[in-house]
Design goal:
mainly alpha, single chain, 193 residues
């Protein structure tokens, strides 16, 4: 599975929030782990690999965006990182929307699809209890988007993507030296004014 590799050259040229947002965006659209998860489906698997690949990309993007709020809950750079990440996702979505329209002659608003999926996943996570596992909710929801809410391979694949994404992002956030810049102090000053 893909790791978010620190890029020292970017870290030196960008503020911590810009660097984090860029690295997270690059990770969110990287397809290596999607290919890995779909490399060996079971022989009796009936769902379309194309559909699963499409839905895995969506799940990875929204899991990455959700992770920003989850892991940076009280962090002063949570909002700048989230804003910069979603701006890049929006620009990427516009490109996909334009390309799709040129290819099939029909406008498909990819960013709106991402937003709708995010809302659905968040609504399903509201069912979480103190003793429940988010993977037991994300997996079936993912399988439903793939076309069969009872497909075990789809449930496991969606759960693996969600868990791997969260783990990679946690590791990445732990590796960042957030205090290396004045950006945190500037963010705190603007909140106090």
């Amino acid at each position: 599975m893909t790791k978010i590799e620190p890029k020292k050259d970017l870290a030196e040229d960008l503020t911590p929030s810009e660097y984090a947002a860029k690295a997270l965006f690059d990770f969110a659209i990287d397809r290596e782990d999607i290919k890995f998860l779909l490399a060996k489906p079971p022989d009796d698997h009936k769902l379309s690999n194309d559909t699963m690949e499409y839905e895995l990309q969506i799940l990875k993007i929204i899991s990455t965006g959700w992770s920003i709020s989850f892991y940076l809950t009280e962090h002063p750079l949570k909002l700048p990182v989230a804003e910069k990440f979603w701006e890049q996702v929006h620009s990427f979505s516009d490109t996909i929307t334009s390309t799709t329209e040129l290819t099939i002659g029909k406008k498909v608003d990819y960013f709106n699809i991402l937003k709708e999926r995010l809302d659905t996943y968040l609504d399903s996570l509201k069912e979480l209890t103190k003793d429940s596992d988010p993977l037991s909710i994300i997996g079936p929801e993912f399988a439903k988007f793939c076309g069969d809410k009872d497909d075990v391979f789809a449930m496991l694949t969606g759960s693996k993507m969600f868990a791997a994404t969260l783990n990679r992002i946690k590791d990445f956030f732990d590796s960042i030296d957030w205090d290396q810049s004045n950006e945190i102090n500037q963010g705190n000053e603007s909140k106090n004014n």
